[in-house]
Amino acid sequence: MDTREREILLVEDNPGDAELARHAFREAGVNANLRVASDGNAAVRYLRGEGLHADRPEPDFALLDLRMPGMDGFAVLREVKGDPTLRSIPIVVLTTSTADSDVAAAFKLHANAYHRKPVAFGDFVELAGELSVYWLDTVVTPRSG
After folding, report:
1. Which of 10, 67, 94, 142 is 20 to 30 A (C-alpha) from 37?
2. Residue 73 is part of a domain; what is its CATH number?
């Protein structure tokens, strides 16, 4: 039985949305540390273990907003999926956009999944539970072994 701490990285520039996600995962009963990177640059530094993040645990998966100032989610996907040491980390896009062009671009950059950010809290709780079951309990990744 896997007893290690489970880790989720949320890349979200909106503090309100980040807090909503934190509450949704808690309400869904997800037993994982939800770490937040407030922009794309912070996410890449965290994933690479740079600076203050040198001893960071690798996330089981990352939730990535696309629309952020500076380094947006597409640039994060390019960096992470282009780095042989990081590309196996599952990245789930979680954004308000349902534009076909955004979905296509995210998958072209090797996003592992694409979800529309729920508006209603109950829907967010449901999605948090589904993501947890799939990415933490069902899928086997190099980190989960």
Report:
1. 142
2. 3.40.50.2300
The amino acid at 92: V
pLDDT above 80: residue 2: no
Choose between 143 and 49: higher pLDDT: 49
Q: Per residue in 17-38, pLDDT tens?
A: 999 999 999 999 999 999 999 9
- pTM reported for the whole predicted model: 0.93
Given a contact cutoff of 8 angstroms between Cβ atoms, the answer to whether 27 and 128 are in contact is: yes
Please state the domain count of the chain: 1
In the block, residue with structure tokens 């994982």: 32
Handedness of CA 124, 108, 35, 72 (dihedral sign): negative
Burial grade of 138 (CB within 10 A; 0-12, 13-18, 19 or more): exposed
**Residue 24 belongs to a domain:** yes
- What domain range includes position 41? 7-135
**Exposed, middle or buried by CB within 10 Å (0-12, 13-18, 19+), for 105?**
middle
State the DSSP H helix or E strand holding residue 126, giving kind and residue range, or none if neither: helix 121-132
Comparing 2 with 85, the larger pLDDT belongs to 85
Mean per-residue pLDDT over the chain, rounded: 93
